[in-house]
């Protein structure tokens, strides 16, 4: 069959339709993978077997549960401190490596992967042995006093330090992607050429361009802290995950309700972070 001049040949729609169908199938499977377990857990929390009815009593009892407020406050405090510490440690180091010693990038990248190689159980055993030196071999010394004070049950600073180490791989990857997406040296040279100080360069020039990376790193760190159980349990600190395990033996329905609520809170937090980042980007694009 001949095609007249100026008329484009029709493109077969079979392969594109197949790709579209496979894409929707993958999305449906992914949604089912997350939604079905969450829906089953939610139904378990609202199913009142005593009265054979559906209610929200399990969620209403959460704020009044023994130890819940303290565990939640402690976990949120640890999350905030870990985010601040991880950002304060990682960002300056990566800026120095990017601007001064780019050859050390593979070394820093390798060091950031160490927490993924060392099992958490091995890490916490080493931390516990070091903490035991405070009241024993180092008793009465400044270092011994610091080790003892870091184990405060109300605010265990040792968990902040350990969580910062565990969060380094995620924070490094987030900032590495953000730094590769912008011209760091050009921005720094331009700002310094205009007389800006180094704090002004970091907080007024680089951080606004790394907002997405910082938000992503912060969210991953918060999720890590709110879900970490092994280290807090072995070191005998009461956090939200350890409280969930303790209450599960007394009231399984209430513990599942807290898990569902915390998961929904994490999703809402991620959604809020994404919307806030998009709203801050849209005025700049419009301008």
Protein architecture, described:
This protein is mainly α and 287 residues long. It has two domains: 23-55, no CATH class; 68-273, MetI-like fold (Orthogonal Bundle). It is 74% helix and 1% strand. The chain has 14 helices and two strands. A two-stranded antiparallel sheet has the order 1-2. A hairpin with a 4-residue loop joins β1 (47-48) and β2. The longest helix is centred in the last third of the chain and has 35 residues, at 252-286. The N and C termini lie far apart (52 Å). The model has no long low-confidence stretch (mean pLDDT 80).
Features:
about 0% strand; about 290 residues; single chain; 14 helices; MetI-like fold; two-stranded antiparallel ribbon
Summarize the structure.
With 287 residues, this protein is mostly helical. The chain contains 14 helices and two strands, in the order αββααααααααααααα.
